[in-house]
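ok posting inputs for the 1,3-dihydroxyacetonephosphate job
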Amino acid sequence: MHIESAEQQALLDQEAHRLYGLLGSVSRAPGAKWTLAQCAQAAYYTLRINQVKKEKNAVILAHSYTTPDLVYGVADFSGDSYALSRKAAETSADIIVFAGVWFMAETAKILNPSKQVIIPAGPAGCTLADAITEEQVRALKAAHPGVPVLCYVNSTAGVKAECDICVTSGNVFDIAAKLPQKELIFVPDLLMARNMEIELQRRGTPKKVIAAGGSCCVHDKYTPEDIAALRRKYPGIKVLVHPECRPEVCAAADYVGSTQGMTAYVAKSADKLFGLLTEQGLVNRLEAEYKDKTFIGAFGICSYMKQNTLSNTMQALLNPSPAQIVELAPDVIERARKSLQNMFEMSR
Ligand code: 13P
Ligand code: SF4
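and the output
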């Protein structure tokens, strides 16, 4: 923004202070919080983005793993994959800007085929979504006829189109437990598949989970020793982990759940000190929203999520490149939507 008047400068100062009120308690790097000067730089973008957003009747959805200047500066909604897919299904905006990774923007497109869906980061991947192909899912179905196929939301639209029910980290165990079958196929998170078997056994609804795919590059690296070290250094700390972590990490935690689940745990808890083995963006959100509590993160960074910035969000809103616009074949949309609708129905 080019500053032409004292009035514009006053608006910028006001926006910088608004951001600083939210971000002043948030870690930007290990041991360093957001400064007023950094918030003032962000304010140039957030003022303009929020103005263009209104003019274009656009909505900005941001996953909690994106940076806090996006989450608090310009997002209309932020949250976990499930909450964002529900918001995408409900929006009346003409344009959906999805600050997240490609599979999330595809999900928004599947639920809103007639709307323009834009992702500032362009084709940002995900080690899980990239771990399985439609052909591999078809081969699994052929090898196990009649077995229901569940796909984690971290999968491509083409993979969702091959599956019966989509699940997210917030509902995966409940949906798997509700299914009458004793066997199911689950892609593409091998660690979540093992966590699912353990959780279903614990609930008294044991099932065999046939799994294929890979793991999340952020969550797979945590170990039980990370938790032991946190407990040694901070006696009484409550440790929260994501179900994309290894089973032995989940077993050593106080709580296992989605980003939304971890947030709800913190909101309800009388405890003041939390260790979080997940992506740093969630740590930042909790630092911003629960200023009376302390959060120790591991600075796990998803480089795909962090490809969304204020600068490319503004550029994408004004003039998206073809690589930032989600296009999907109508038959893929139709088939993938069934797996999402089945999820919404089974989550009621
Ligand atoms: P949530 O479903 O908790 O939003 O997680 C998505 C994700 O990519 C986790 O790594
Ligand atoms: Fe994918 Fe892991 Fe990044 Fe989530 S944190 S988007 S699962 S790579």
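notes: Residues 80-81, 154, 168-169, 216, 242, 244, 258-259 surround 1,3-dihydroxyacetonephosphate (ligand 1) (CB under 6 Å). The first helix runs from residue 6 to 23.
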